[in-house]
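Reviewers of the previous submission asked for a worked example of the structure-prediction workflow described in the proposal, so we include one complete record here. The input consisted solely of the amino acid sequence. No template or homolog information was supplied to the procedure at any stage.
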Amino acid sequence: MPAQVPNSLNNWWCPMDCEHAFMGFSYEITACQSLAQLKRDFSDIRNTFSSRYVRLYGACDNKGFYDNVIEAAWENTLGVHALIWFGFDGSNQWQSRRDALFQTLHNNPKAPFVTRVVQFGSEPLFDNVLSHQDLAAQVQQAKSALSDLQIPVTVSEMAYGYQERGGAQDVLDAIDLINVHMLPFFSQIATTGDAAWPIVLNDTNWFIQNGDGKKMYFDENGWPSQTSPGVQNNTPSAVASISSEYGYYKMLDSRCKDLKNAPRGGIGWFAHIYSDKQEPGYGIYDVNGNLKFPFRPRTSC
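From that input alone, the workflow returned the following structure tokens.
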């Protein structure tokens, strides 16, 4: 990063058309990590794994928390996929989270230089938090509110979330880019992570067919090493294991050129999630801070 915050966003970001392969990690913020912890983790994310982005997951409602995220990202040359978290309690707290985020984005001078996109999520269509018409309207309002900062807006959702709402074409039309949940472990035809490509391809093709050529990212994307109360397979053939989790990421690496052939320069993907401390089973690190398997994914092909 430069010594001083630039005066303009002109030519600040690399074009999304050149982004593909491994992007970075989903990173859960429910623990409201301290600034020091954010800096340590973001340094690891950037320097150990050559990540370009952190995609936030969950919510911390402490005042000033996103300012800390911005500072940690700036210090470690990372972009952020910010998130307006709906949660699972059916409350309207997402509205205050939206307003607080937008206030920070406008008031923190560094915010537009690390915030690559704002997402509505996670899986608001699947969880029926809002009707697809209301969600599309929220996206349009957010795009207007953030237009002076040149921050695009999207929805963090899986293909089925759109499909069960009749395709929710109004949402697909409203968003600036497509952030896809790719969690093939839950498929009715799932087996092991290394064999998940047909499931990945099926959902990818649906978005290609209905997404009007928009840029795509797999943001909540991975395979679990263990089940938990919130992570249960939908078929006995779906295997949750460390080798299956590792196999999934190796499979994505082996399909780098296939993913690169998608619209707008290809699909970039995130690993969900940084640590098992944040979400059991999905982490690259286990609860003791040890890598569960060698992880050095390709950042281009």
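The first strand starts at residue 21 and ends at 28. We consider this example representative of the routine output the project will generate in years two and three.
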